[in-house]
Amino acid sequence: MSRMQSCGLGIAAVRLVVAASSPATGQECAAGGHWKGTIEIPGASLEVDVELAEAGEDWAGTISIPVQNAVDLPLTAI
User: Fold this and answer.
1) How far apart are CA 7 and CA 63, in angstroms?
2) Which of 43, 61, 64, 77 has the fewest CB within 10 Å, making it most exposed?
3) Which is nearest to 12 in space by CA: 78, 57, 70?
């Protein structure tokens, strides 16, 4: 898997994590912080570490995929 593919996969994973943790209307969002998990892809499992933080009205974050030596890749359009 290329670095670009893995980054795209990581971004999709972050979107899934944030969507799954989004609170109901009127509740405070607790998506910021350190997230660690595994993405299941055909034939493999990828461990990922995601760091999310509020940046004003937006979000900032990074993803690391240790098995691919991808460390602190910036996430965009969170």
Assistant:
1) 8
2) 43
3) 78
